[in-house]
Amino acid sequence: MIEKTRLECIDCNLCKKNCLFLQKYNMNLKEFTYKIDLRYRCFMCGKCKSVCPKDLSGTEIAFELRKSRPENILKTEFLKNDYKFKNLPKRKTDTLLFLGCNYPGFYPKTSEKLIDICKKMGIDFSVECCKKPVYEQGGNAKFSNIENMLEHNNTKTLICACPNCYHLLKRKLNVNVISVFQFLYENGIGKKIKDTPSIFFPCSDRYSREIFQFILHYIDGYNEPYKKINCCGLGGGAKKYEEDIIEETKKMLHKAWEKNIYTYCSSCSGIFKTYGLKNIKNFLSEILEVHEEVSLNYAKNVLKYKFKRHTK
């Protein structure tokens, strides 16, 4: 993407007009390709690609720059490649519920309800990192750990609760990867939502809406008041470098807020809670009638799920 951008960029600056990060450093995507020192400051949200007439991608530029010169990733590799709070299936299972690492932390009761539903259908669960934090930072992401788990358990279908897990593992694994909403819809599980949700779309599904097409079966209509806000603030690991952009994002969210903010990414829900936003709703929790508020007792919750028992 770096070479493609340098050759094909027409300097229209549409990318800059639509991105707080590019605006802050007064550059377009072509100029970004020469700014390796800024590689970890991009939120990798994909907005630039959506407006670029040449289909150029800041996400891919940032990734290539990070891959060429990884920095400060040993801690992430240590924590996430061999995920310290993992809880893997204890039996052979053709279909596996892949909770990821964040869903049990932010929505423990909803995760419990989902596990119970799957248990009745003979489906086991796993708590494991999809390796996106390592992959996105340009590190050596060990997808082989997941592949070995699936092979050991003869798993052919993976049900992903998290949109980040879904979109990454769909590209990286040789098994059938589906979203939890597809699983619920195809099995006639879940209740229609009475609210008219105001939706904040997660970066990973914002433009393809592969997952959202199944959520549509559970709502009669929706609003998009947050369209101009590119990322919740957690994308690309840029949050720790770009506090001023985070503050601007927070202000924009509060200004755009309309009655509620529905998400289908638990990480979005978690950071919105810290921003002080009200009436944060998670589609999965609402569809399963758990109506759970996002929990900020993340460490306590993931520790509990590390030791959660599997039924045989």
UniProtKB/TrEMBL annotation:
GO terms for cellular component: plasma membrane. The keyword Iron applies. It holds the Pfam family CCG. Residues 32-62 form the 4Fe-4S ferredoxin-type domain. PROSITE patterns: 4FE4S_FER_1, 4FE4S_FER_2. PANTHER family: IRON-SULFUR-BINDING OXIDOREDUCTASE FADF-RELATED (PTHR43255:SF1), IRON-SULFUR-BINDING OXIDOREDUCTASE FADF-RELATED-RELATED (PTHR43255). This is Iron-sulfur binding reductase. It comes from Treponema pedis str. T A4.
